[in-house]
Amino acid sequence: MPTDFSDLTHRLPAWVDACRVHTAQGSVATYIPELAHAPRHALGITLHHRSGKSVSAGDSDMRFTLQSISKVFTLLLALMDRGEQAVFEKVGMEPTGDVFNSMLKLELVQPGKPFNPLINAGAIVISSLIRGDTPEHKSQRILGFIRDLAGDDSAAFNEDVYRSEAATANRNRSLAYFLKDNKVLDADVEPTLDVYFRQCAIEVTCAQVARMGLVLASDGVDPATGRELFPKRFARIAKSFMVTCGMYNASGEFAIQVGIPAKSGVAGGILALVPGELGIGIISPALNDKGNSTAGVHLLRQLSEQYDWSMF
Ligand code: GLN
C-alpha cells in the first residue's frame, strides 16, 4: 500500500519528539576528533516523495558529513567508470558480520580481497577505482555526482573534518597498506586515502540525503528531471548491498525490524529509501554500539511499522 504522505506529514513532528529520548542511549563518535563536537541530542529527518512533495522535522537543517554513506555513491561511480566485472574482481559481495573497520577477514577467510564495498577496506579499494588524473580530480568528480543526486550544488567538503580524519586515521592506513601488500590495491596508499577521506567529509543536509535516496528509490532516474544518473542494474546492486551490509554488523537486525535499504555513517547520518516511493535522510549524531544512529534507527523502525514499509 502506498504511504499516506499527508498523514505522515501531519504526524512526523510528534514522532521525532518522541524518538529524541533515544539519543541519551548513544554516544557521538570521537575517533575522528572533529566529529566529537556534534550536538548529541539532535535528531532531524527529511522524506522526499516521488511526487515532489517533501516533509522535514526536528533538526533537519543541521549540516553533517556523509562518512560511510558516501560508500554507496563511490560504488555507483566506480561501477560506471570501470564496469561490474572490474569492480567485483577487487571486492566481494558478502556481509562480514564484523565492525566496519575490521581487519579480521582480510587475512583469515578470503586472503586480501575485502568482503564488500561498504566496509572500510572495500570502500578504500573502490575509491582507488574512481577515474581522474589526480586525487583532487577524483574527489571533485565524487562531489559533482553527489551534487547531481542531491539536485543542489551546496554540498561541499568540510575541510576541518577532512583534516581531522586524515591526521588520525591509523586504522584506515593500516587497512590500505595491507590491501596494497596483497595487491588488491593497485594505486598508491596516500593518494587513495585522500580521495576516501574527502568523500567521507562531504557535508550535506537531511534534504540532500533524502533526494539522493529518492534517486536510488527510482532506480537511478531523478524523478524531478527525468534524467538517468546511473543505470538500473547498478541501482539494484547498490540497494542489495544496503540491505545486506548497509548498517554494518546490525544489518540483519535492521532488515527484520525495519526492512528497507539503508546506509549509515559515523557522523550519525542515515540514508534510507522505500523503493519506488520515497527517499529518506536522517541525522542524529549519538551512535549505538554498532556505530548506527540510535534515535535514527528508532525513528525508522516506527515509520516502517506504521506505514508497512518492510520489503520482506
Ligand atoms: N570516515 C569513516 C572511517 O573511515 C567512515 C566510517 C563510517 O562512517 N562508519 O572510519
The N- to C-terminal Cα distance equals 14 Å
Radius of gyration: 18 Å
Largest sheet: 5 strands, antiparallel
**Would you tell me the overall average pLDDT?**
95
CATH superfamily descriptor of the largest domain: DD-peptidase/beta-lactamase superfamily
Structural account:
Its EC number is 3.5.1.2. Belongs to the glutaminase family. Keywords: Acetylation, Hydrolase. The structure is a single chain. This protein has helices at 5-19, 70-82, 84-90, 104-108, 120-129, 135-150, 159-168, 170-181, 189-200, 206-217, 232-245, 251-257, 294-307; strands at 27-28, 44-49, 54-58, 64-65, 156-157, 202-204, 262-264, 269-274, 278-283, 286-287. With 312 residues, the protein is of the alpha+beta class. The protein has two domains: 5-62 and 206-307, DD-peptidase/beta-lactamase superfamily (Beta-lactamase, 3-Layer(aba) Sandwich), CATH 3.40.710; 68-200, 3-Layer(aba) Sandwich (Beta-lactamase). The strands form three sheets. Strands 3-2-9-8-7 form a five-stranded antiparallel β-sheet. A three-stranded antiparallel β-sheet has the order 4-6-5. Strand 7 (262-264) and strand 8 form a beta hairpin. The mean pLDDT is 95. Bound molecules: glutamine.
How would you describe this structure in keywords?
single chain; 312 residues; alpha+beta; Beta-lactamase; 2 domains; 5-stranded antiparallel β-sheet; 3-stranded antiparallel β-sheet; 10 strands; binds glutamine
